[in-house]
Amino acid sequence: MKNNSSFELQEFFPYKLVKVADLVSRGFSEIYTKEFDITRAEWRLIAAIGEHQPVAAKELVEITYMDKVKVSRGLQKMEQKNLIEKQSAEFDQRSVLVMLTEEGEQLFGKLIPKATEWEAELLNALSAAEYKDLSMSLNRLVQQLEDMNKA
To answer: Which domain of life is it from (predicted)?
Structure first.
């Protein structure tokens, strides 16, 4: 039975976003899983900690856009691999600050150039102006979605 609807999944904007996100995730994961033997959660945590350290563990939930359980498990695995160290925050003994160890810093130093190289190859498809427009548009969509989800 043929449906005469004008709906086309391939042109449905949320579908396109999910497809792009999935392709980016799969493509980039080749680097961090094969070359560095880390998971997606660990990659995001290493990048966030490297950028913001020392950082409160609870802040990593917002920074990485991962849930508390994933952050907690990721930090636990990273601690077992000696990639991070934790210490109690001076301002609040219940709060834990996370930093990269020397080993974590070395991994961060190897990962970031690979990440930016991969990003540059991806963005070769866009001009500088197109990238700027896309980035601004994505920021507006994030804000719109956050507003919609609050309502």
So the answer is: Bacteria
CA–CA separation, 99 vs 114, rounded Å? 21
Average pLDDT, the chain: 93
CATH of the domain at 70: 1.10.10.10
pLDDT score of 93: 67
Q: Decide if 83 is inside a domain.
A: yes
Tell me the one-letter amino acid at 81. K
Number of domains in the chain: 1
Q: Tokens 């996370």 correspond to what residue?
A: 98
Q: How far apart are CA 60 and CA 69, in angstroms?
A: 11
Q: Tell me how far the alpha carbon of residue 60 is from its chain's centroid.
A: 11
Enclosing domain of residue 103: 39-110
The rounded distance, in Å, linking the Cα atoms of 82 and 49 is 14
The tens digit of pLDDT for each residue in 9-44 reads: 999 999 999 999 999 999 999 989 999 999 999 999
pLDDT at 71: 96
End-to-end CA distance of the chain: 39
